[in-house]
Amino acid sequence: MKYKLKICGMKIPANVAEVVALQPGYIGFIFYPGSKRFIGDLDPSLIKNIPATIKATGVFVNEELETVKSAIVTYRLKAVQLHGQESAAYCEVLKGHAEVIKAFGIDENFDFDTLDEYQAAVDYFLFDTQTPDHGGSGKTFSWQLLGNYKKEKPYFLSGGIGIDQLAELEMIKDERLYAVDVNSKFELSPGLKDTVLLSTFKQALDKI
């Protein structure tokens, strides 16, 4: 298996159990109330009891630091994914509490030099499609833009990835690509994943 798989936007208990059975590397839960996949009042024990081999990941957007730290404890999160304008100093505070994944929206105007200050403050970058809604757009960005990324920090690739992108993923020859993050292209409705389609995708990804 070359890449880890992160399945994001989970919120329905029975569906969470089905996705856990697929054994992805990461399962993402969105704590941003503005998202259609906001976890709402999901029982914390459902997330706390996810096997340790799968990293339960909380996705936050410009949240108060103390709120994030509290969620790490309450839900026993193994990683946090930050999708807003969080500073490097903000990220650094969280680094001892969970893996820190800092997301950036990528388009033709993105300046990869802005990542310099985050190098020591995060564990991974996540490159998503630039949208006003902090991800979940179902749209891919031009992966050719990754040629402008000159840092050594490993990254997650996100943004509208589905079955149709498998051939393109196979063509990427970048050892820094650590994980593939999927969400809306595998949904029957917001937050409800098609586990049959996910299983097919994971089996193919494992062979890349």
Largest sheet: 8 strands, parallel, barrel
Proportion of β residues? Answer: 15-25%
Specify the helix fraction band: 10-25%
Query: Do you know the CATH topology?
Result: TIM Barrel
H-E order: EHEHEHEHEEEHEEEH
Task: Tell me the number of structural domains.
Answer: 1
The overall pLDDT, averaged over residues, is 94
- CATH evolutionary superfamily: Aldolase class I
InterPro entries: Aldolase_TIM, PRAI_dom, RibuloseP-bd_barrel, TrpF_fam
Domain N-(5'phosphoribosyl) anthranilate isomerase (PRAI): 6-203
Organism: Pedobacter cryoconitis
EC number: 5.3.1.24
Word description of this protein:
This protein has 208 residues and is α/β, with parallel strands linked by helices. The chain has a single domain, classed as Aldolase class I (TIM Barrel, Alpha-Beta Barrel), CATH 3.20.20.70. The protein is built from 6 helices and 10 strands, in the order E-H-E-H-E-H-E-H-E-E-E-H-E-E-E-H. Helix 1 links the parallel strand 1 and strand 2. The chain starts with a strand and ends with a helix. 39% of the residues are buried.
